[in-house]
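Problem: given the chain below (297 residues), write out its structure.
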Amino acid sequence: MNLNDTKLWTAVITPMLDNGDVDYNSLESILNAQDNAGNGILILGSTGEALNLDEDESKKVLEFACDLKKSVPLMCGVGGINLKSTKKWVEYLNSLTIDCYLLVTPLYAKPGDEGQYEWFKELLDLSKKPCMLYNVPSRTGKDMSLLACEKLVDHKNFWSIKEASGSVQKFESYVKAAKNQRVYSGDDALLPEFSEVGAKGLVSVAANVWPKQTNLYVEKCLDGTLKKREKDTKMWKDATESLFVASNPIPVKWLMSELKQIKSALLRPPLTLNDMNSKDVVMSAHENIQNWFNDNK
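Solution.
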């Protein structure tokens, strides 16, 4: 499977029942929808509330996804701060039929250039699969080191970068550091701008609720046709930003529940639906996306 053929990866939610257990029936429906849309699947990322699942639950979710044997590629998130336990997790992932890994900048510690280089190198050395390195300073507290990327770019398991700083200038810097490797947007709303400076695709939250619609959005961003229609560009920006009126994945879970795509919008603490604001804005965004898709498909 050529991972470069997949331009859209969906960072899937982990649906839960009202009693707090993982809702595997809804999870299967979500993965089927992504498969039908041709979207790669990123499981156990921050959108999947990975840090709020215990290890046994995480393994069960992964093994469930692997057993479904979808036609689209499967990526798993790898985040943490303890290198020993993170390496143990990668060793476990190596035993599964997963196609690639998402390696997140170490959390909380804010390591410098050399600390990040050593962290990523150990994980890349251990991995048996291609890896996407992830810059998400809003969650980790520090940008991923450009110097570390430059030193690691020729590693056999360095496949790509997911860049979610929210800055076009920073995105360009990672494109330069990645040389011939691919850089994906981690910001749904900024793909039109990022496409103009070298983005090869999107790792998306919006595609959870709008799988086919977001696939078409990515296609039109990458070929430059969306950017030519200012009204459509603004609509997509407003719609995708509405999914962040509260901490991700609160709004997207709420909307999917309202649309009966999942049984419950339950989240694990410290996330809660009590922080869900601007519900009318989110529902209006959904209606706008549906109208746009019907006009463009």
